[in-house]
Amino acid sequence: MVKPTNTIQLNRLKQLDRYFGTALSVVDSQTLAQIMSCSTRNVAKTMKTLAELGWVNWQPGRGRGIKTQLQIVRSFHTVLIDVLKTYVAGGELNEAARYADIFNYQKVFKQSLPEWMIEFSEDNQRSDKLISLVPYSLPNCHPMHMVDRNAGIIVSAMFDTLVDFEPLSKQFIPRLAHQFYQEGLTHYFRIRPDVHFHNGELLTPEHVKQVLLAHKKPNTIANELYQSIESVEVNRQWVEVTLTFDDPIFLHAIADIHASIYLNNPAEPNFPYGTGAYHWGTKTIDHWTLLKNTGYFAHHGILKSAEFWHVLETNKTSVGHLLEFEDSEKRIDNAPELLGSSLGCKGLCMNKSLDDDIRRSLASVTQEVLKQHYQARHTISHSLFNHSVALDSNAHSRQSESLELPHSLKVLKKNSDALHHFWNRLNEHDVQIEYVDEFSKADVWIENFLIGADPVLDHYYWLLLSASAKRMLTSFKQQQWLAEVQNAPDTNATLSLIEQRYLEQYRVIPLWTKSYAFHRHQTLRGTVINSLGFMDISKIWFDKRES
Fold this sequence. Notes:
This protein is 31% helix and 22% strand. With 547 residues, the protein is α+β, with helices and mostly antiparallel strands. Among the domains are: 8-74, Winged helix-like DNA-binding domain superfamily/Winged helix DNA-binding domain (Arc Repressor Mutant, subunit A, Orthogonal Bundle), CATH 1.10.10; 160-259, Dipeptide-binding Protein, domain 1 (Alpha-Beta Complex), CATH 3.90.76; 341-514, Roll (Dipeptide-binding Protein, domain 3), CATH 3.10.105. A hairpin with a 2-residue loop joins strand 9 (229-235) and strand 10.
């Protein structure tokens, strides 16, 4: 099929289709001119063009006012869909999206793009451009305020931290600070002199100072991780951070993705400038592109660009280069083209106001319900982070006559549907369930304990600093356990001990693991999903060799 050079022909077909449908019609030129909003003398030229495209059959009459015969052979919808498919198959997704916008076919475009991408994916020979179909719109991409996991693949590509945590060696390695060391309570970071933000501004130690101090502000996510900072000083190319005590979590905190160094962008506050291997190209709510930063100070990405399109959930087996699933709590089958990652687990949290016997009884009922209703579809978990501290599920078991359940229970409505069989079982035990919208009023709630690359930081945050931790622990207990960690010779072992206490005291009941999955093109390489559930764009490449 020949693609139209502009949208005029399509608009003319749309006007005719709306008026006549596909029935054979007899009409005069004046009527056609009115329908197509054109002059009478242009009618013949327009109809001839549409006929040559194979969209209509048209037999002109002779003389003024003479009737002509018209029949639409291909409907506007059919023709527009073919045009969109042709552009997609040719790799011209931007042009396809433009046509969809003009004719208000955005929803159809989002629904159909995974299927249309098949032909492009199979035939495309470019090895430097990734196209990913994702089930979400452009998220907030400010590293310090990031709460949407979907922003992770973007933030990790566009921003850098002072230091990196290497999971295998469990060591901290240089990043924006190419030298760093500690003396007493002061950490010294020498900032690289050759790094620029994506807007061209040179990175300076003063930028780093401002970001570190911003993390201490009360309304910042996990600001508690930075409260040990007493002062931040700039000494030429060095940043000197003095702590109030020898905080074992400090380096873990500044190596986290949320601690990436950024430069404020007043025009778009949710999209600050970074220093990373990729920078923004196109950026709209449903379509965005990351372009290789050719001036990057570290290892360059292999891909020239990574393009993301928001599609609606339709046929999950259709795949372009990369079709991203939404997070899943069900078992994910193994398949060569399917990549999966565990994101952590769901847990049933108990308010500190519930006494020990009630928590223990609720745990017992939970285990019964998990075995009966959930273990066939989910991977049941018996710990939050460390499998070595998992309790034997039989340890929860008690005879039904010894259960000490409350007369009523306030359940946080958010996420509660995931465990509806449990609430039904409690009703059978004459427990009155009241669903509440406010977290502060809930006796029990379901939390997603998500894990990242640094297990120490995950343990510390979720067990001692998170909103859930503050509701599960008394203030005294929280401060007591925080002090234990801060003074412990082995931080990891102490955090595992605290998790074990959570489980033994039935403050939280692990439910099942959360996972994430991607379909990938067979030539895609470097698609390792990290523990945050996203890929490192700078390491992805296409292998176009013949097998």
